[in-house]
Design brief:
Strand content: 5-15%
Helix content: 40-55%
Number of helices: 13
Radius of gyration: 28 Å
Order of helices and strands: EEEHEHEHHHHHHHHHHEEH
Largest sheet: 5 strands, mixed
Distance between the termini: 58 Å
Low-confidence stretches: none
Length: 328
Amino acid sequence: MSWKYRRCCGIDVHKDQVTVCVLPPDGQEGEVVVKVYRTFTENLRQLRFWLQALKVTEVAMESTGVFWRPVWNVLEGHFRLLLVNPAQVKALLGRKSDRRDARRIAEFLRDQRLDASFVPPPEIRYLRELLRDRVSLVEERTRVGNQIRALLETANIKLGSVASDVLGQTGRRILTALAEGQWDAERLSWKAVGKLRKKERELKKALAGYFTKEHEFRLGQLLKRLRFLEKHLEELDTEIRRCMGPYEKQVELLMTIPGVDQLVAWTLVAELGVDMAVFPDAAHCASWAGMCPGEKESAGKKQSVRLKKGNRYLRRGLVQAGRAASRK
């Protein structure tokens, strides 16, 4: 019977320090070693050299906010790393300390009682951050657009009752003129383009309001913020396209699915990666994404089957794709 050398390490991660516990090699007796390190890069490199000197093969740590990332960056590529859900190693009340937590993680790792969280390679992690930044920017742009619509209503400007898109080409021309001090409804109505030129009379009525200097200042500030966000969004899309270059074939293949456009395909690549071997099967992938019913049974009775949280960014893209596909 072949024997495989294993030496396990558990790390309890915090913002300013990490507590590290190293167990004796499997099948051997020895002392359990516990040390505390600061989380500066220099200290984490010392931690890595120490683990290598002890011939550690596997390291597990909790996914504590973003504090696990500096440790992961330094140890990645040198050991078999596992990032685990804190719920799997939660301590009992009254029996919690950093040293105990680190040892419990190491023991659970040795006994193979931990399920590793999915951590994609660095290039996919960067894409994931870019796509998530884009979601935040779009949400902020939507928020500013809603503030502009609300401001127009408070000034009795009923542009939204005539134009389907207040921030369309005609709307932008009118909003810019309002922010520059042109309040005359008749002159503003001349800025209509396209189909709205046929509604010039109705547009003139909608633009006759109670616009003041205070409204003018606020509208100018909101338009500046909107232009800044749109410029930032364009720059972000350019960087995403550049980084998506190596995955162009995968993106094109994903876009053949009904309801999946380029943005949803980008999201799928960024959140799932391109190596599906990390998931045992499609069911595990759907469960990780939070797109299947939960499981809670007691005394032979099924209780709540609510969806678990999963990956909210991935779920957002899949729901959008599903709604789009339902219209095809």
